[in-house]
Specification:
Helix content is 44%, strand content 15%. With 510 residues, the chain is α/β, with parallel strands linked by helices. The N and C termini lie close together (9 Å). The mean pLDDT is 95.
C-alpha cells in the first residue's frame, strides 16, 4: 500500500518525532511504500530511509540509497517541503537552517504562508507518490493541512498532545483550525484514550472516528543490560562522535555560577544560546565512564529540558536521597542553564540563591531552607550529558535503577516511561493524563498499585523522593523480577508493529 505521512519537524529528539519515524519504519518493514514529509535535513542518517528529496510545487533533488527498497519489499522516501525560513514550533528550540518561532507568536501572515506552502507540497507529493492513504501528525497544523490539501474524508490526523496544550488551548485561531481538521478527518488517532477525550472538547461527534494507537518501543534496542557494560559502550561511542565538539562547553558552569551570584536572569537565558543544544556534551563520555563504576543507586531523567517537564523536581529529590544515590539528567533545551543554576545553589547550600531562583524562574522549587542548607555538595552526585539520541538512549536507560518522569504538562502518552520499562529502568511517573495510563498498566501487570507513580502538584518533590526510596528499598531479587516482568510486558504489548497496524485501521485499511 502507498502511504503518505506528514510531519512538520525532525525525526528524533521528541516523542512525536520518534513516533513518526518509528511508524514509518514499521510500515516499511510490513512491506508498504511510505512517503514521509518532514523538515529533517539529514534523513540519510536513518537506516530505514531509502530515498530523500524536497518538494514544493513538484518533487525534486531526489537521491536514492539501499537500492531503493528494503529487503521486505517496502520503502521510505522522505521529502522536505519548501516552507521558507520560518519554522513554527510548539516549544522554542533552535533548528538548523530555520528561524524557529512558536505558533502562538506567529503573525496571521506567517501562519497562512506556512500552511499554504505545506498544502502545496502535500498535494504535489501525493500526486507524485500516488498515495492511497494520507496521515498527518498533529491536528494543528497537520490536520488542517490535510483537509485543505486532500478534502473531507480523505485523510487521517493524529493528536500528539503538544498541539492541544501549546496552540489549541491558547488561541482561538488554533481552536478553529482544530475543529476544521477534526470535522474533516476520516479518522482521529491518539496516543492514549486520555488525549482523545481531551480532543473531544474542541470537536463533538468524532467519538466513532477515534482510534488509540499507543507509541511503540524498539524492543531490540531497549532491552535489559548490565550497567557497567552499557555505560562503557556509550562512553566509547561518544568518543568518536564529532557532534560533541559543538556541545555545551564544561566552562559554562562557571559562567552560570557568576550569573547566579550577580542575580542576572537575562545572562542565564543567554548562555543557552552559546552552543548547539542538539549535540551531546563534550564531557559526556567522561561522565558516563565514571558512572559505569558506580555500584550504588542511580536515578535518571531523559527528555526535554523545558519548564513544563518538571526536571527541577528530580534535582531537588536527589538532594533528599541518600548520599550514595547518583542523578543522571539526559536531554536538551534552553532551560538547562536554569537547572544548572539550581544545582549550583544546592551544592553551595545557598538559601538566598535558591530563594532568588524560586521567585525569578519558572521552576517549581519546593525545598525549604533546612533542606537547601543540608544539600551541600549535591552537585557531585548530579550529572548532565546533553542530548543523547537513540544511538545512546537505550543503554542509558538500561543503566538506571529508577527513571523519573515528572512532567507537569498533560501528556498524550509516556513514551520514555515505556522505553525505560523495556530497558529495565523502573519508572516513577506523575499520575496524570497519558502518563497515568502507562503507570496503571504496568502497576496492574505486577499487581502493585501506586508503585510506579506519584501524585502531581504541590509537594511532588518529596513524593518523588519517597517513591524512589520505596523502589530502592525492595530486595535486589524483587527489583530484578519487576524489571523482567515490565520489560516483558512492553515487548509483548507496545511494539511499533502494533502501532502501525492501529494507525492503518483508522484509514479503513490494514
Amino acid at each position: 500500500m502507498r502511504i503518505c505521512l506528514w510531519h512538520g519537524w525532525l525525526l528524533d529528539g521528541t516523542g512525536s518525532n520518534v513516533y513518526m519515524a518509528r511508524t514509518a519504519e514499521a510500515l516499511r518493514q510490513a512491506g508498504h511504500d511510505v512517503m514521509l514529509l518532514c523538515q529533517d535535513r539529514h534523513t540519510e542518517r536513518f537506516s530505514f530511509v531509502d530515498a530523500w528529496g524536497t518538494v514544493g510545487t513538484e518533487v525534486s533533488d531526489l537521491i536514492h540509497t539501499n537500492g531503493g527498497h528494503s529487503p521486505e519489499g517496502g520503502r521510505v522516501v522522505t521529502l522536505r517541503p519548501r516552507i521558507g525560513e520560518t519554522l513554527p514550533v510548539f516549544v522554542y528550540d533552535e533548528y538548523e537552517g530555520f528561524k524557529a518561532k512558536t505558533f502562538v507568536d506567529l503573525t496571521d501572515e506567517e501562519l497562512n504562508d506556512y500552511i499554504d506552502r505545506n498544502v502545496t507540497a502535500l498535494r504535489a507529493a501525493v500526486e507524485w507518490h500516488h498515495s492511497e492513504a494520507v496521515i498527518t501528525g498533529h491536528v494543528v497544523p497537520g490536520g488542517a493541512i490535510g483537509r485543505r490539501a486532500m478534502g473531507d474524508g480523505s485523510f487521517v490526523t493524529m493528536i500528539h498532545g503538544s498541539d492541544i496544550e501549546y496552540a489549541v488551548k491558547l488561541q482561538d485561531r488554533y481552536a478553529l483550525m482544530a475543529m476544521e481538521a477534526l470535522e474533516g478527518a476520516r479518522g482521529v488517532v491518539g496516543s492514549s484514550r486520555d488525549v482523545l477525550e481531551r480532543t473531544m472538547g474542541f470537536a463533538q461527534g468524532i467519538r466513532d472516528r477515534m482510534w488509540v494507537a499507543h507509541p511503540g518501543v524498539d524492543v531490540e534496542r531497549f532491552a535489559l543490560r548490565p550497567r557497567e557494560a552499557s555505560l562503557t559502550y556509550v562512553s566509547n561511542l561518544l568518543e568518536t562522535d564529532p557532534e560533541t565538539a559543538s556541545g555545551r562547553p564544561d566552562g559554562l558552569d562557571k559562567e552560570v555560577r557568576a550569573a547566579l551570584t550577580s542575580r542576572d536572569a537575562p545572562a542565564i537565558d543567554h548562555l543557552a544560546l552559546r552552543y548547539d543544544q542538539t549535540a551531546p556534551d563534550p564531557g559526556a563520555s567522561a561522565v558516563l565512564r565514571s558512572l559505569a563504576a558506580h555500584e550504588g543507586p542511580m536515578v535518571g531523567y531523559l527528555g526535554k529540558l523545558i519548564p513544563e517537564k518538571g526536571v527541577e523536581r528530580v534535582i531537588e529529590a536527589v538532594a533528599l536521597l541518600d548520599p550514595d544515590t547518583r542523578g543522571l539528567l539526559v536531554g536538551f533545551g534552553t532551560h538547562r542553564e536554569w537547572l544548572t543554576a539550581l544545582v549550583g545553589a544546592l551544592t553551595a547550600g545557598d538559601t538566598a540563591a535558591h530563594l532568588w531562583l524560586r521567585t525569578n524562574s519558572t521552576m517549581q522549587l519546593e525545598l525549604d531552607e533546612v533542606a537547601v542548607s543540608t544539600a551541600l555538595g549535591v552537585g557531585s552526585r548530579i550529572s548532565f550529558t546533553g542530548r543523547l539520541d537513540h544511538r545512546y538512549a537505550p543503554r542509558i536507560l538500561a543503566a538506571l535503577d529508577v527513571l523519573v518522569v515528572p512532567s507537569t504538562l498533560p501528556e498524550a502518552f509516556g513514551m520514555v516511561a515505556a522505553e525505560g520499562a523495556a530497558a529495565g529502568a523502573l519508572p516513577l511517573v506523575a499520575r496524570h493524563s497519558g502518563l497515568a495510563e502507562v503507570a496503571s498498566t504496568l502497576e496492574g501487570e505486577v499487581a502493585r498499585p501506586g508503585l510506579f507513580s506519584f501524585e502531581p502538584g504541590d509537594g511532588a518533590t518529596r513524593r518523588i523522593a519517597e517513591g524512589v526510596r520505596a523502589l530502592l528499598a525492595l530486595a535486589p531479587e524483587e527489583r530484578e523480577e519487576l524489571r523482567s516482568t515490565i520489560s516483558g510486558y512492553v515487548k509483548r504489548e507496545w511494539s511499533w508493529e502494533a502501532t502501525a497496524r492501529n494507525i492503518l485501521l483508522a484509514t479503513g485499511t490494514r
